[in-house]
TrEMBL record:
Name of protein: Lipoprotein
PROSITE patterns in UniProt: PROKAR_LIPOPROTEIN
Amino acid sequence: MKRIYFVLIGLMVLVMSCSINKINFSQFELSELNSNGYKVFLDSQEIDLVHTYLDEKNILKVSIDRKNKIIQIIRKNDSNGFIFLNDLLIQKKYKSNLDRIVINNLSIDFLDIPNIKFELGSVKYIKQLTQHDYLGKDFDDLPQVKNTIGNGMLIINTITISVDNE
């Protein structure tokens, strides 16, 4: 009888260690897992999280099944739509001579633009910078600033950045 209890407890521990775990939503970490072979499901539909930016305030639950390499994301409002980066660029009338697009501090490849989409409400900050924005600043003559910005750089953030006052 003791053996049966021991085996049952062992099986329960084994099953619990392989079960699905709830985790916090992190766009960067989950995108990395997606790049490394994990399938990501958003409201039970498979998505490419590497090119999809979600509204973190609309995330209800995130669970991960490491054994089967599956991430399940459930939104509070699953009827929220998406806008593609191409449409956002046209809608906001950004200059076509952008040399660089940066999303969440990561430079993106221009070939990826047609695949990138944002959940409505996910974009927290968007700004186009040009060299003109840096005229008269202490570092406006630095070549690395001019090379980085080029003719224009578009900055998009979907992550809320909090600044601590110390």
